Amino acid sequence: MSTYLGMPAFPEAAAVSTRDTRLRGNLRHATHTIRAKRAAAVAEMADWQQLRAAGAAAKDDTLRHLDTYLEQLETAVTTAGGTVHWAADAEEANRIVAGLVRATGETEVVKVKSMATQEIGLNEALEAEGIRAYETDLAELIVQLGDDLPSHILVPAIHRNRGEIRDIFTGEMAAWGRPAPEGLSDRPAELAEAARLHLREKFLRAKVGISGANFMVAETGTLVVLESEGNGRMCLTLPETLISVVGIEKVVPTWRDLEVFMQLLPRSSTAERMNPYTTMWTGTTDGDGPRDFHLVLLDNGRTDTLADQVGRQALRCIRCSACLNVCPVYERAGGHAYGSPYPGPIGAILTPQLRGTASALDASLPYASSLCGACYEVCPVAIDIPEVLVHLRQRVVEGGTYTVRGTRTVIRPAKGHAAERAAMRAARWTFQRPRALGAVQRLATRTRRIQPRRLPVGPGKAWGLTRDLPAVPEKSFREWWQERGKGAGE
Amino acid sequence: MSRELILGRIRAANAGARAAGPVRRDYLRAHADRTPDESVGLLAENLADYRALVHRTDAAGVAGVVARLLAERGSRTVLVPDGLPAEWLAATGVQQLEDRAESTARELDAVGSVVTGCALAIAETGTIVLDGGTAQGRRRITLIPDHHICVIRVPEQVVSSVPEALERLDAARPLTWISGPSATSDIELDRVEGVHGPRTLDVVLVGE
Amino acid sequence: MRVALFVTCVNDTLYPRTGQAVVTLLERLGVGVDFPLAQSCCGQPQFNTGYRRETVPLARRYAEVFEEYEYIVTPSGSCAAMVRDNHPKLGAKGAAARTYELTEFLTDVLEVTDVGAYYPHTVTYHPTCHGLRMLKLGDRPRRLLQAVQGLELRELEGAEECCGFGGTFAVKNPDVSAAMGADKARHIEDTGASAVCTVDNSCLMHIGGTLSRRDSGVRPVHLAEILASTEGDVW
């Protein structure tokens, strides 16, 4: 099974992916398709900015009183017949889920697409326990059959086009169950039909379902899953046992808050007025749906993120993926370069907070942005992603005291930034002394004729691979200004 | 215990945090003032936009429309949830099956069609909401059969907007929100209708 | 009226013509211009790369240097945004609200859109990200361009997409930056314009460097230089 372990830093991964013309074409087509649709779906709503502000405020309230809301949620779920478990990290969550599945005596489970279970590597952990997890979302199925990794929050197989999907189905379905139909074409409707046939058998015999949730309502104990295909409904209602693994930040205080999020999320993610199916359930219901319901509340770095007063806004995220779809960096680098189930702008601020900034990859993520701000503009819960990116860059190059796995920890400035740090210091020194600045400028202008337009090393080399350097002028502006003053007789 | 550990971490993280501002609910309750008829019209339009098949009739016409839809579909069996008005199926000869708690998913897979009512419908989004109440049955009966006929009494079951819908729904009930037949955007982010849920959704709007 | 020009370190060192254009333009419009020689850099490169501690003295210095001015005008969208949005966070609020990007100053303070300019070329306009999304310049630059005599404005496809400069992003992520730059350059070439203009020379350095390497022949030009140009004094 593919994993994110040992992946290179973002720039190295992107150096490869930006040259993959098929990947670039697939991503360009998909992201441009959805951009225009999202804009139209949002434009229908005269009160979008008010909804966005209310969504952000409701999430901020959630985070500020998260302990209270989680306890309230636990009580409500338990009262309604569910069982609540708490997992401090991925390992504990996986152990809890594996134990619950083993207790049923089953060796296979059907899964609804869930970011939280991707994050904790649940499928791999279950496999190690002899339990096979079947992904049932079409895109997750494509990823699983292709022994691949997801590259988008909403559409994990966005990096694949229809032809590649057809080849994966034809080649791999037989090893996992019902083979692809003979002569399968690459028409999306036929591909969807092939997935329907392949998964039908698994749904009908499934005894255990595993899901995440988009929202959990503290007041009522209700969990909410939005989806399109019906695989979610299958997994949430047919099995006898349902296990939902949900990040602690997914709680919202009141039932009424859903009126905000049920308007914000579909338009931001699939650009629909409403997604085809939403399931809302509270505990268990006699005679309808699972008899056993387990909710596993997951921390896994979320409380560390909460402890960062600037970075905590990342926990407002409702996983719509609008920021990915508008991001020019994501569009060119692709999701895999981010080395985590959370790619794109939100991944660049979420992953280094959930996992820390110790690895070269995680330390490179806050820099995987030109700070163009398109992500902030479309975010339905107004996460100021550029602000958090800059904040995390400070964490990387300046270090400081941050919470890591619940403990206040002094983080040293990252290695590998020494030359840059020296340059920034020198620049600051010069900028504080206009005479020195003038001297540097004079040196540059006097030597302009011997300066190359490409440089052989360092940042100059990186610049010069595709760009000429500007010609240095004969004199700086301040020289011109001073001479002009003399000429005017001042 | 991880419960205490996590709650403790949250409290520590929030110890010096700024107070959260109030949630201002100055967004719209509905996006237009609509007469009941206008809401029904918008519902029909939005349902159709997401490829539901919409049929309009009156109380006397329901049985005829349902019978025709079942016949056109060629279904030999139709599932009937508890409390479904008998007159809705008065004109069809298709074999009627009760929704029994012990019927398995596999048995449901062999059924041709299902007819239900609903709890309410949302005009602005083209959404039907089922809450397992009268004439709606268990969640699985509107999921496994490939053809769902949903009868909505208009205008009384139609609300304008999502906020109006949530006000009227009971969180304690299992809720299913349906906006058109199942679909996917997973191939090149383009929408294709028809995956695991019913691929045909007929909606019968029954006026007074 | 007298204003202070904050020319920015990039323009001071590499693009003096842009500063000269601002002086020419403002004086033509009857505005006296001061250039406090103690000015240097707003600290944007340091701040956006994560060197907050190196930024604080620069932000404070900016506030001191421009303390006495009611209007501080700068021909850079990103530097104006840095001062307005980030200096207050660094404890240097003083001059933030009095800092105007050039097109804001023209349209909002002087309330002019026709500045009497003449520029007989086809031009396409790239709205730079910080001008577009942080300052929310909207159609101000376009209104100014549309009023220029002799200028034919060409629509740019994907105009609102970042050019790929992003400060140190351009060298930390050279491949993605170059891929974005190549797409921007292609769209610019497709307009058939002879010049591409922006309100920010740093983005223009990247766009122009890319165009130059592609031998595309499209000239990068700062908006101020177009507005400074007149029939009697063609820039």
TrEMBL record, chain A:
N-terminal signal peptide: none
Domain of life: Bacteria
UniProt-listed Gene3D superfamilies: Alpha-helical ferredoxin, NagB/RpiA/CoA transferase-like
Residue ranges of domain 4Fe-4S ferredoxin-type in the record: 314-383
InterPro entries per the UniProt record, alphabetical: 4Fe4S_Fe-S-bd, 4Fe4S_Fe_S_CS, FTHF_cligase-like_sf, Helical_ferredxn, LUD_dom, LutB/LldF, LutB_C, NagB/RpiA_transferase-like
A molecular function (GO) term: metal ion binding
GO-annotated biological processes: lactate metabolic process
Protein's recorded name: Lactate utilization protein B
Lineage start: Bacteria, Bacillati, Actinomycetota, Actinomycetes, Kitasatosporales
UniProtKB/TrEMBL annotation, chain B:
InterPro entries associated with the record: FTHF_cligase-like_sf, LUD_dom, NagB/RpiA_transferase-like
Source taxon at top rank: Bacteria
Domain LUD intervals: 99-206
PANTHER family in the cross-refs: LACTATE UTILIZATION PROTEIN C
Name under which the protein is recorded: Lactate utilization protein C
Species, as recorded: Streptomyces smaragdinus
Higher taxonomy: Bacteria, Bacillati, Actinomycetota, Actinomycetes, Kitasatosporales
UniProtKB/TrEMBL annotation, chain C:
GO molecular function: oxidoreductase activity
TM stretches of this protein: none
Entry GO terms, CC: cytosol
Cysteine-rich domain ranges (all copies): 3-83, 123-207
InterPro entries: Cys_rich_dom
Stated name of the protein: Lactate utilization protein A
Gene for this chain: lutA_1
